[in-house]
Structures are given as C-alpha cells and as structure tokens.
C-alpha cells in the first residue's frame, strides 16, 4: 500500500481510428498525495481530460498502470467525484433532486442523503436555489449543483475537467475562490484540468504541464503560495507572477519546438 | 469566510431585484391570466386564418360560383349533421374508437421496439430494414389483405392504424434514447448505477420530449389509418360514411364526414400536446421561454 491518492505510472493511451493510430498520451507518470490540489494545464487536445478518465477508470490505459489509493484501477470507480465542463444536469430534476441522484444511484439512506444535501447547498452558496430547475439557473449556479453532486458521497478524490471553462471571466474568478475554500473545508484530493494558467496557479499546490501530440508531461512545478489565498492579493504576489511565467514559457517553448 | 459565503449567494450577471427566488418561481408557474394572454397571442393567427377560410367557403357558395353538388354551402353541411345526429354520432364514435385503440397500441409497440433496438447495434441493424419495409409499403394496398385475414370487423382498421402510427414513435423514441449526454452516462457509471437505474432515471426521461414529438405525428397518422381501414371494407365509421356519400353524390354529408375527421385528428393531437405539458412541465416551460424570447 503506497501513500498516494492517485498514481499514474508510465501510462500510454492510443486510440485506433480508421486511418491511423493516434497516441493521446505517452510516458506519463504522476503521483498525487492525499489532500493535495493538483492542476493539469496544457493546450487543447493534449490529453489532459484523458488523464482524468484514466484516474476514474472510465478509460483503460493502453500500457502502464493507474492506481487509486494503492489499488489498481480496472473499470469505473465509485470512490471519486466527477465534474465536467458542462454541468450535465438532468433538466427534469430540481437542483436538489439533481444532487440527490448521486445518493439514489448509491442507495444511500434518504435521511442521511438529505442532511448531506442541505450541508452542501449551504457550503456552495446554493441556498435559495434548491428548487430551481437547471434552465432557470445561470452557468455558475449549474456548476455549483454539479459540484454538490460530485461531493455528496464525500469522495476522497475529486476530478474536475475544465469545470469553469464555459463561464464568464468574473464568475470564473468567483468560482475559483469558492472552490479553493470548499477544498480547504472538505480536505479532499483534487485533480483539476484547466487551460487557464492563472486558475491553475491560484488553486493548486502543484501544477503539471502537459504538451500536445503526443501528450506527455513537460514539467511539474510547486506553487509556493500561502494556504490562505486572497484572490486579488495572490494575483499580485511575485511568486504568482513567477509561477505563471514559468508555465507559460514551458508550454510556449514546447509549442515552438514542435 | 463570511464574505465568501455572502458573495456566493449573489451571482454576478444576475440583475438585482426582488430576489432571484421570486424570479424563479414567477417564470416556472405563470398565472392563469398570463397563460390566457399567452394562448391568445399564440392562437389568434391560426384562428383568424380559419375564420377567413370559412368565410371564403361561405362566400363562394352563397354567390353560387360553384354548383352546390360540387361544393355544398356551410349551412347545408351542418344541416346534414343536425338532421341525423345519431347517424353521425355512431360513425364518429366507431372511428374514434379505432383511432384511439390503434394509437395506444402503436405507442406501446413503438416504445417497446425502440427500447429493444437501442440495447445493441446488432439488434438495431437487424430490425431497422423490417421497420422500414413496414413503413414504405402503401397501407391502402395491403389493407384489403387484412380484411381477408381479419374480416370486416374492427381488426383490419386497428392493424392499419397501428401500422401507420408506430413508425414515427419508434424513430423518435430511438433518437430520444440515444440523445442522452454521454457525460451523463459516464457520471452514472462513477455512481455505480445499475443498468436499470441508468435507464429509468436518465435514459428514459431524457427520451420523453422526442417521444412526444413522435406521438403527435402518430396521432394524426392513426386517424388516417383507421379511415383507410374503413375504406376497404366496413359498415361503420367515417370512412364508410364518406364512401356511401360519395356513391350517392351526397356532398353535404361527404363534407360533414371530412370535417369531423379532421376535427378528430386535431383533437387527438391537442390531447397528446396537453399530456406532454402534464408529463414534461420542465420541457414545456423551457420551450415557452425560448419562444417568448424569439418573438
């Protein structure tokens, strides 16, 4: 039993299309500590999302191994929470009922589930919107519902696939602040895929950089910012500027080399 | 921390007002007066068109531009109904009964076939040509065969109605069942959902808007099917009334039969639409939202 929450070792993913074989990921190795917030940045199509699919067991690697809490991943895992770029809510269910879907599928006792939903609604600031239907909610609010649904069963690992990619800049910043706070409250391990360098540096303890074609790890940096991160203040920290520039240079250089 | 949770409650981009909750409930459940206004706004154009057409019919016949044995006047047409209410009631009921039964069976068979077909592509590929064949064969051409097989009773009428109505149901239901967001299904997998749970909680409800679109088409087809069935051999029903009136050159009765028949189709269509609003309030309200924004 290793101490890592997520371990991806020497993984490659190849897709076979009609015309040719496509290598989505190659030689990828990364380890995530329990409770750690790791962001994965890279250009579109570099296989960032594939990494989350691997970690959740929704996709099997062509070679290499994936372990969750030391356990080899084979098939979809139940001990994770997943948030996509699209909120993927059921339009015929209210916000509360959408969150409860997680409980219903897992056969969680109704009373326990209800208490947990109330707690999450409070924590994510959905109070007052519990009974609204998805089409009545803004993009940010829909994403909060999706986040509640992902957190309902207290998963030790939360996987987020560009969760704020479809939001406007202001809402996105606000959601970043919220997510940082929620992560500190829940102490869950987070793997966040994003193409926003600022988002990655503000939120994460470590940032993994992925380059495209074939997707591979270009480098990892530690973000040496304080635990408590005020959004405005963090943005003007020298460490923030240094980290974002480092990432930009790294990914940019890789793009030029290609 | 306090400022965090407060800022969470006010969503940027939402206008300040009497509170977002009030806005939500107002949009979700419009009052009776609002609904009435909405209905008039939507319905006045088609109603006006009907009135104009009706008036044109009346004007043409009143001015004796066309021989009355070719196109009877509205008055003569309604008189033909009023003079024999029992006769029309009996035959309208027969057709209504066949139509409803045919429609319900078509809906059930269609949904069942669609559910089977989406289970695997092999099943779908095997069944599809058969379905297509059943659809493209002219019903009026095979209807006599059903009379030979099933006699002059209600049987052949229902079979033809089902044959005509079930294809749109299958096609729309298959589309609906496949319309589910693949990410939703992946989420379902990470929730450890059993196939039955995924079907009943996600796939089936997601398919309902498509199903109702198909049912509306099927409703109008079922009427046609029932009447086609009556044409080839019946002693009851509006198809029988029309054939008889045609033979006697009794155009007022013929027109009356046609009118009732169309009314029957429209009523069934409206009934399905009403059911849709009842079953899918979430879908209907979203559609209403988009239609008011485009207007």
Automatic annotation (TrEMBL), chain A:
Q: Which PANTHER family match?
A: ALIPHATIC SULFONATES IMPORT ATP-BINDING PROTEIN SSUB (PTHR42788:SF13), TAURINE IMPORT ATP-BINDING PROTEIN-RELATED (PTHR42788)
Q: Could you tell me which species this protein originates from?
A: Prauserella cavernicola
Q: Does the keyword Aminoacyl-tRNA synthetase apply?
A: no
ABC transporter domain: from which residue to which, for each copy? Answer: 6-237
Q: Which SUPFAM superfamilies match?
A: P-loop containing nucleoside triphosphate hydrolases (SSF52540)
Give one Pfam family: ABC_tran
The transmembrane segments are none
Gene3D superfamilies, per database record: P-loop containing nucleotide triphosphate hydrolases
Q: A Gene Ontology molecular-function term?
A: ATP binding
What this protein is called in its record is ABC transporter ATP-binding protein
Is Kinase given among the entry's keywords? no
**Alphabetical keyword list:** ATP-binding, Nucleotide-binding, Transport
For this protein, the record's InterPro entries field holds:
AAA+_ATPase (IPR003593), ABC_transporter-like_ATP-bd (IPR003439), ABC_transporter-like_CS (IPR017871), ABC_transporter_ATP-bind (IPR050166), P-loop_NTPase (IPR027417)
Give the superkingdom in one word. Bacteria
Matching entries from CDD domains are given as: ABC_NrtD_SsuB_transporters (cd03293)
Automatic annotation (TrEMBL), chain B:
Which residues are in the ABC transmembrane type-1 domain?
Answer: 92-272
Task: Alphabetically list the UniProt keywords.
Answer: Cell membrane, Membrane, Transmembrane, Transmembrane helix, Transport
Mind telling me which GO cellular component terms the entry cites? plasma membrane
Record flagged with keyword Signal:
no
Q: Does the keyword Phosphoprotein apply?
A: no
Give the source lineage, highest ranks first. Bacteria, Bacillati, Actinomycetota, Actinomycetes, Pseudonocardiales
Q: Where is this region: Disordered?
A: 1-25
Describe the family membership recorded for this protein in Swiss-Prot or TrEMBL.
Belongs to the binding-protein-dependent transport system permease family.
How does this protein sit in the membrane?
A: Multi-pass membrane protein
* Identification of the protein by name: ABC transporter permease
Any one Pfam family match given in the protein's UniProt record, by short name: BPD_transp_1
Species in which this protein is naturally found: Prauserella cavernicola
Question: What are the subcellular locations of this protein?
Answer: Cell membrane
InterPro entries noted in UniProt:
MetI-like, MetI-like_sf
Name the Gene Ontology biological process terms: transmembrane transport
Q: Which residues cross the membrane?
A: 43-60, 99-118, 130-152, 158-177, 211-233, 253-275
């Amino acid at each position: 039993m290793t101490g890592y929450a997520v371990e991806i070792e020497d993984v490659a993913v190849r897709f076979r299309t009609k015309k040719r074989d496509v290598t989505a990921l190659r030689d990828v190795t990364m380890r995530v500590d329990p409770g750690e917030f790791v962001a994965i940045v890279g250009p579109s199509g570099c296989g960032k999302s594939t990494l989350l699919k691997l970690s959740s067991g929704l996709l099997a690697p062509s070679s290499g191994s994936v372990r969750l809490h030391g356990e080899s991943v084979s098939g979809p895992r139940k001990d994770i929470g997943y948030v996509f770029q699209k909120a993927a809510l059921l339009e015929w269910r209210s916000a509360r009922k959408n969150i409860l879907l997680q409980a219903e599928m897992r056969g969680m006792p109704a009373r326990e589930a209800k208490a947990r939903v109330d707690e999450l609604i409070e924590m994510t600031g959905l109070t007052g919107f519990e009974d609204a239907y998805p089409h009545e909610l803004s993009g940010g609010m829909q994403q909060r519902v999706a986040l509640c649904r992902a957190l309902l069963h207290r998963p030790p690992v939360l996987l987020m696939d560009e969760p704020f990619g479809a939001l406007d800049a202001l809402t996105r910043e606000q959601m970043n602040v919220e997510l940082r706070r929620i992560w500190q409250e829940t102490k869950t391990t987070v793997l966040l895929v994003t193409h926003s360098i600022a988002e990655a540096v503000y939120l994460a303890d470590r940032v993994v950089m992925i380059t495209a074609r074939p997707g591979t790890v270009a480098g990892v940096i530690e973000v040496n910012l304080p635990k408590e991160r005020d959004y405005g203040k963090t943005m003007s920290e020298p460490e923030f500027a240094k980290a974002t520039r480092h990432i930009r240079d790294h990914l940019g250089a890789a793009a030029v080399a290609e | 921390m306090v400022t965090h949770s407060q800022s969470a409650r006010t969503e940027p981009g939402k206008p300040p007002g009497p509170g977002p909750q009030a806005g939500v409930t107002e949009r979700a459940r419009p009052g009776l007066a609002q609904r009435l206004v909405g209905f008039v706004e939507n319905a006045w154009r088609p109603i006006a068109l009907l009135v104009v057409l009706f008036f044109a019919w009346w004007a043409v016949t009143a001015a004796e531009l066309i021989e009355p044995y070719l196109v009877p006047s509205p008055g003569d047409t309604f008189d033909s109904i009023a003079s024999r209410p029992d006769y029309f009631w009996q035959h309208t009921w027969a057709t209504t009964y066949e139509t409803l039964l045919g429609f319900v069976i078509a809906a059930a068979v269609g949904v069942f076939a669609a559910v089977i077909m989406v289970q695997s592509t092999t099943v779908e590929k095997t069944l599809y040509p058969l379905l297509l064949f059943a659809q493209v064969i002219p019903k009026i051409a095979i209807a006599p065969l059903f009379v030979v097989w099933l006699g002059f009773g209600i049987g052949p009428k229902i079979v033809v109605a089902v044959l005509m109505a079930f294809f749109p149901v299958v096609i729309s239901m298959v589309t609906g069942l496949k319309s589910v967001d693949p990410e939703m299904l992946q989420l379902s997998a990470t929730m450890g959902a059993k196939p039955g749970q995924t079907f009943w909680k996600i796939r089936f409800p997601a398919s309902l808007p498509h199903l109702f679109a198909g049912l509306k088409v099927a409703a109008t087809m079922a009427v046609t099917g029932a009447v086609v069935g009556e044409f080839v051999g019946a002693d009851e029903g509006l198809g029988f009334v029309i054939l008889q009136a045609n033979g006697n050159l009794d155009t007022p009765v013929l027109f009356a039969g046609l009118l009732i028949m169309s009314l029957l189709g429209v009523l069934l269509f409206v009934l399905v639409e009403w059911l849709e609003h009842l079953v899918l309030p979430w879908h209907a309200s979203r559609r209403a939202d988009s239609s008011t924004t485009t207007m």
